[in-house]
Specification:
With 237 residues, the protein is α+β, with helices and mostly antiparallel strands. The protein has helices spanning 3-6, 16-25, 29-32, 34-39, 53-98, 102-115, 128-131, 156-161, 171-177, 219-233, and strands spanning 41-43, 50-52, 121-127, 142-145, 165-167, 187-193, 200-206.
Amino acid sequence: MNSRQTSTIGQEPLTEDDVVQFLTREADFFTRHPGLLAQLELPHQSGEGAISLVERQLSVLREKNRGLEGRLKDLISVARSNHELSDKVHRLALRLIRSHSAAEVIEAVEEVLREDFGASDTVAVLFHNASDIVQADDTRFLRRVERQSGELKAFATFLERARPRCGRARDSQLEFLFPDHAMEIGSVALIPLGERAEIGMLAIGSGDSDRFHPGMSTDFLERIGELVGLALSSRMR
């Protein structure tokens, strides 16, 4: 009996872990034994027949590639969407710069939100300290209210935090913002105007309950709020 045979006498049978450790340690094992790859067969995922290890690897790689392609398409879609949003916010900024009065600012905001952002259900709520500078009658878009009005109790937390908020609104909020069609609004984006929302707020409603949700990014909403707030405050001086 040679030494190689002797060394295996009395040893425990190989386990799966032993094989895994060996192949992990001997990374070039299949490079030294290329013919073995073609001989190895694995059960097909469908449960019917068998495929070679090489075919299985190709199948896994194809699946990974499909996943990567899907992620890449998602990233491209997000980048394209962000670029489009950036362009829309830029156009809003240009309209605000050209506005000579607070009334023109309000008009520009309504038009841009409706035409560029496709937001037909929008409301600009101005508080008493900003209302005087807007020489226009209240409309479906423009609402004026005293900052301490009881009508705003439903927005107390939002106004205190003064940050954009997205999601489903309470009935009392919807009835104040969209009194004519509150039941048709599924989700809302609230945008504070001015430092600590001292000027007012913008509300954008959607019939889609998932259009505005708590997990979405509010960066572009913040930009809109900052631009509109600055445009109005600069005409209050």
